[in-house]
């Protein structure tokens, strides 16, 4: 079982490996830079070397690591300036992951800002295909969204439609977020519902394209579109549902990454321990 959480790179990027090991992770996710700004400080040779050396020594499988895109880019944006910056940022992150030996880059699909789904999807596909031209072995993973107003890619059918237009196909995969799926109306509370939801995913997107699972319980109700992650088993998906998802995903040998909150109720150590227990 490959399981871990999003870890900080604070101090230097190789510190993420220490943070992962400290939390007994066998998989982890990072931001390759400050996620709150547009600017990324360039990776130095020693940043790259230190990260790679530590990762190798950690015995964590490189293919159980991923990076997440920063927060500001909107790949479906109708605003020319913001769109161009977003596309450049995606290309830059694909390149950074390549240098670090991180095989997967998770990206949100953005917001069409009221211009309609079709327009948003066109821009999104164009952006992804541009980044798909980068010559390295990094796979861009499209993450299903929580279905907030104007968002692109919450339902599997639409995600599948987007996916079909991407070239070269080997540059693309999918990251499934359980909280986002649940709040967009895909039930995950029982074995039966988990099976039904992944059947639907298989039908439109294909399980073979699923490379990373974001395991998050949901603060919101089924179908409420509220993107609020919660501690494993304590949210509205609940313990039974989370256990069903974990068992299903472990069988498929897909790495599991938590993006759960850290608060008075629990920290990452505890959520990871609970996942192992539920498995
Ligand atoms: Mn995400
Ligand atoms: Mn996620
Ligand atoms: Zn989320």
Explain what you see:
Helices cover 40% and strands 14% of the residues. It is of the alpha/beta class and 279 residues long. The chain has a single domain (3-278), classed as Alpha-Beta Barrel (TIM Barrel). Strands 1-2-3-4-5-6-7-10 form an eight-stranded parallel β-barrel, surrounded by four helices. Strands 8-9 form a two-stranded antiparallel ribbon. The longest helix has 21 residues, at 80-100. It is globular, with a radius of gyration of 18 Å. The model has no long low-confidence stretch (mean pLDDT 97). It binds manganese (II) ion (2 copies) and zinc ion (ZN). Zinc ion binds at residues 146, 177, 179-180, 227, 229.
CATH fold call: TIM Barrel
Q: Per DSSP, what share of the residues sits in E-state strands of 2 or more residues?
A: 5-15%
Number of spatially distinct domains: 1
> What top-tier CATH class fits best?
Alpha Beta
CATH H-tier superfamily: Divalent-metal-dependent TIM barrel enzymes
Order of helices and strands: EHEHEHEHEHEHHEEEHEH
Q: Ranges with pLDDT <50 over ≥5 residues?
A: none
Considering DSSP H and I runs of 4 or more, what fraction of the residues is helical? Answer: 40-55%
**Going across the major beta sheet, what is the strand order?**
1-2-3-4-5-6-7-10
What ligands does this structure carry?
manganese (II) ion, zinc ion
Shape: globular
CATH architecture: Alpha-Beta Barrel
Mean pLDDT: 97
Give a short account of the largest sheet. Answer: 8 strands, parallel, barrel
How many E strands? 10
Radius of gyration, in Å, reads: 18 Å
Distance between the termini: 9 Å
């Amino acid at each position: 079982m490959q399981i871990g959480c999003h870890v900080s790179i604070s101090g230097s990027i190789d510190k993420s490996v220490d943070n992962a090991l400290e939390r007994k992770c066998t998989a982890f996710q990072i931001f390759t830079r400050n996620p709150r700004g547009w600017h990324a400080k360039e990776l130095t040779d020693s940043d790259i070397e230190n990260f790679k050396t530590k990762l190798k020594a950690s015995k964590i499988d490189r293919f159980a690591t991923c990076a997440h895109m920063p927060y500001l880019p909107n790949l479906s944006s109708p605003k020319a300036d913001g769109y161009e910056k977003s596309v450049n940022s995606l290309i830059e992150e694909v390149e950074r992951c390549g240098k670090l030996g991180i095989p997967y880059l998770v990206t949100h699909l953005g917001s069409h800002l009221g211009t309609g789904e079709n327009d948003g999807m066109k821009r999104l596909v164009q952006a992804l295909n541009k980044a798909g031209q980068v010559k390295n072995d990094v796979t861009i993973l499209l993450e299903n969204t929580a279905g907030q107003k104007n968002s692109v890619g919450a339902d599997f059918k639409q995600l599948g439609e987007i996916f079909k237009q991407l070239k070269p196909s080997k540059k693309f995969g999918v990251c499934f977020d359980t909280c986002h799926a649940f709040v967009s109306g895909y039930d995950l509370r029982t074995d039966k519902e988990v099976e039904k939801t992944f059947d639907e995913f298989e039908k439109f997107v294909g399980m073979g394209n699923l490379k990373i699972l974001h395991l998050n319980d949901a603060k919101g109700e089924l179908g409420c579109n509220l993107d609020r992650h919660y501690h494993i088993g304590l949210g509205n998906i609940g313990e039974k549902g989370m256990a069903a998802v974990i068992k299903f995903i472990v069988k498929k040998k897909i790495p599991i990454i938590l993006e759960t909150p850290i608060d008075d109720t629990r920290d990452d150590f505890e959520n990871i321990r609970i996942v192992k227990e539920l498995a």
